[in-house]
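Hello, quick one for you while I still have it in my head. My current little project is about how a certain protein chain folds up. You're getting the sequence in one-letter code plus the fold written as tokens. Would you mind checking whether the tokens look sensible for this chain? Here's the protein in full, and shout if anything looks odd to you:
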Amino acid sequence: MNVGVPCTQYQRAWSRSVTLIGMLSRMEDHRDPHYTPFGKPRAPKSRDVGEPLWRFREEGVEWSCELLFRGESYGWEARVLNQGELFISRRFILRSTVLWADEQETDIERGWTE
């Protein structure tokens, strides 16, 4: 820069940013290298195994249904599993869940898969 020549706003902003970068590069990093802001990921929760209602194989795919009691507040849950993975689930207050599970079995045997 020339002495006696007024600085433009751009030149002042640029010189401040260069100064700031120089200051930051000289600062020490005091952060913990093992710090993770959201904590360690938890291990996947194991699936509760219920009472098996039915199981069959349709076109090479294993289908099964199990019944779980979730307590007085939540009632009964029926789970339809495809190859052991959850496909569909429904919760009922009463044990009439078995009727719904039987309907699902019939639908799957007829070819319904969605």
Notes: The CA atoms of residues 71 and 93 lie 10 Å apart. The chain has a mean pLDDT of 77. The longest strand covers residues 61-69.
